[in-house]
Amino acid sequence: MPRFLLTRISSGLVVLLLVCLFTFVVFFALSPDPAVQICGKNCTPELIDQIRGNLGLDQPFWTQFFLFVAGIFAGRTYGDGAAAVECAAPCLGYSFQSSQAVWDMIVQRLPVSATIAVGAAVLWLLAGLVGGLLSAVKEDTFLDRFTTGLTLTGMSIPNYVLALVLQYVLVVRLQWLPFPQAVRFADDPVQWFGNFVMPWIVLAVGYAAAYTRLTRANVLDVLRENYVRTAYAKGLPQALVWRRHALRPALTPVVTIFGMDFAGLLGGALITETVFGINGVGKMAADSIARNDQPVIMGVTLLAGFLVVVGNIVVDVVYTAIDPRVRVNAR
Amino acid sequence: MTTTRSTTTGTEALLRVRDLTVTFATPRGPLDAVRSLDLDLEPGGALGIVGESGSGKSMTSLAIMGLQPRAARRTGSVRLRGRELVGMSQADLRRVRGDRIAMVFQDPLSSLNPYYTVGLQIEEAYRAHRPGVTRRAARKVAVAALERVHIRDAAVRVDHYPHQFSGGMRQRVMIAMALSTEPELLIADEPTTALDVTVQAQILDLLQEIRRETGTGLVLITHDLAVVSEITDHIVVMKDGVCVERGAVEQIFTEPQHPYTRALLDAVPRIDDEIGALRAVAPGSPAARENAARENGDLA
Amino acid sequence: MTSSPTDLTGTKTVAAGTGDTAEAPAATQAAGALRAGAGGTWQALRRDTGAMLGLGYIVLISLVAVLAPVLTAISGWNPYEFDQSAIDPNLGGMPIGPWGGMGAEHWLGVEPGSGRDIFARIVYGARVSMGIALSATALTTVLGVSLGLVAGYFGGRVDLVVSRVMDFLMAFPALIFMIAVLSALPASNRSALLVVVISVFGWPYLARIVRGQTMSLAQREFVEAARAAGASGTRIVFREILPNLRSTIIVMATLAVPGYIGTEAGLSFLGVGVVPPAPSWGQMIAASVKWYAVDPAYFVVPGTCLFLLVLSFTVLGDRLSAVVDAQEGR
């Protein structure tokens, strides 16, 4: 097992390095003058020069890249003398537009994004697993067909359209939910909850649809398996056949996919946060794109990549723990 | 381990099937996978059901257990020691399955659940029919079952997963699982088809041995005449869902009556045959085969 | 699931609409078994209401896209004209009249603030949505099928390289990266850039399936026979294996389109897609966010068109997949 883990971790690191490299290339090699873009709107030539010096943009590409990667592990100082800026490890970059280290900016907003991710995840897992199971059991009945129609719709409606529809219907028209207002949970739990309900729903809908279909397909597949027939032939009661022989093989792949989806979502639900005006990592990324604050964009990209890679590794490890066939080969 | 199943009270048949019919509804009308089939098996006897793919032999075995697909309709009578299985409640049927009648399927790899150890799968078969048995006692039964089918290091291998066994061993595991509850009747659906020839012989020997020791009745389903000739006393030849000939093994082999049976026998290459074209069983209706047979000079 | 334990999903579509930085698994099996009957795939599909409705809408939008100039000539407004008379400056640019200003003059109303005709912008936006999505699908299909075939058939080092690249691309945080790339690059040739960027991240999903199927087909006897007859590798791949993949490719391509439509719309929504003033449904929806409370028509119109288009392709792909599965006796 440890050797397997080591291989996965090392290839994960390679992937991360490549993500870093590609992002770096895109920003610093492709764009005509990064300093101008980083400087933002209210720029002066002095500021541009300062940025150029601080970020070492006049240095060769590989030096810049090396400095950046080293900064992730050891921290980094931008510029020198009185105007020097400290960026503690892990230094994912420094936003000159906001005068903050990117890492700090991310950490501030991570709890909000995590809340959205967790709430949505609970919703979509429940809906998906239950919906998929029911559809499989009642295959070809009206319920099944209705659910299929529902899932196709859920998969097809874009997040932002649904967000706007919900916002309009629930907040403006029916006034069932309050207008979003930034509050802390401790101060006003009701408002806090109300803030998150719609993002949770909007984010969960697409996944719930996909997971319902996936669960349904898996359960139907497993029920056709020979070993389920054997279980019935042994005279096992239906509940036991379902619980032990059908559900576990059917649901295991779903749970592992969930791991990857969730990891990806922790990196910020960009569109949903933007539409609802929620100050999470995703919105920060979207705002930075609009402002051309490239260090932030790059930092968030790296974070997202990191989470996906970690998610992948966790999923692979979990799979070896769950599926005996994979386990033996992994040793 | 011997049981006294073979001593019967009177001459009551172990298995008595009458007029078994399994029908599927298709867009082109109802299709009989099995039609009006009669079977008889004495306690401790061995019956072979022989036929090509699609002859309905596997469906017969499933229908006896009531495991035919939900889309199929089953009619007729299936009596196990006089007890009628058709129309039995699901609860009662569950008590019969795995306990009075056990089944061994063709492909042991897909017929065993890959997520659980073989020990667990044997234990659950046993415990389903012996309420109140503890896990430890059931585990002992599982180990004993594996030993009975000559799996070495049974105490260790009982915790292994199906994919850790070879094909022949897996089939032994399935047989062990079937026998753990000491059933009266064992139905084996193509138990050796997925195995290579040397392993086939071992499995057949095992089945013989078990029959000798426990007196369990055996219904063996196969397309392989060699297999049937070794193990069974009586044969039923099936074609297109219908029984075309039945009789004692020696009789069928020496004096086949039906042209289809004869064609089946002819299709098997024999060491004392002259070297010539292999005769395949001609497809088509029995009449067409009769004509072909006549042309070959086999019919008067 | 017929894939190996580490192949966790059958197909994935990169859909900015259904997931932000993650993708949602698309249909692997469809509900409602279809009897294929006599007469092949098309006949079976023809009998399916859902598929036909979807196809109908797709054809409609395609016609609209192609005939955009004609339609705007008829309606009288092009997508770039500002009609100040249709909006009320005292209300901050709100359209005059109910439903966002729908009426005989402007069939689908006008945009608040600018007074541009929504019908014209929808009609030209259809070009963008269909054009980019279909081009991306075509490019993805070409890339995915050829690389999948090559990796699956030739195996060895070729397979190793291709598989590594596929794993890498699939592990990438695609949406964020696409946004980052598109925002960093200058605005010229945006459409082509969108197609390329979307395709770069899209082809691995098709390639993986093609590779798997190629690998199992390559074991079959007819391939062996062809090889024994002296056929070269390329010939075998294109003459023997490719035809057998036809239905898989068609189904996957159909299912990829809605994902790409959503992706383009999402990217445009975020401001990195099609550059204004060129119309795009996604970008229209983005502009409508400010006005949603007072002029809901502004987001309902493009939103509905977008939703229906994605739904149509999804339903069509879903039904097609069911028909194909039924015919192959799965």
From TrEMBL, chain A:
Keyword Transmembrane helix: yes
Coiled coil: none
Membrane topology designation: Multi-pass membrane protein
Keyword annotations from UniProtKB, A to Z: Cell membrane, Membrane, Transmembrane, Transmembrane helix, Transport
Keyword Endoplasmic reticulum attributed: no
Cited Pfam families: BPD_transp_1, BPD_transp_1_N
Gene3D superfamilies: MetI-like (1.10.3720.10)
SUPFAM superfamilies cross-referenced by the UniProt entry: MetI-like
Domain of life: Bacteria
Residues of the ABC transmembrane type-1 domain: 110-319
Family matches, as InterPro entries: BPD_transp_1_N, MetI-like, MetI-like_sf
Transmembrane segments: 12-30, 112-137, 149-170, 190-210, 250-276, 296-322
Localization, UniProt: Cell membrane
Family according to the record: Belongs to the binding-protein-dependent transport system permease family.
Protein name: ABC transporter permease
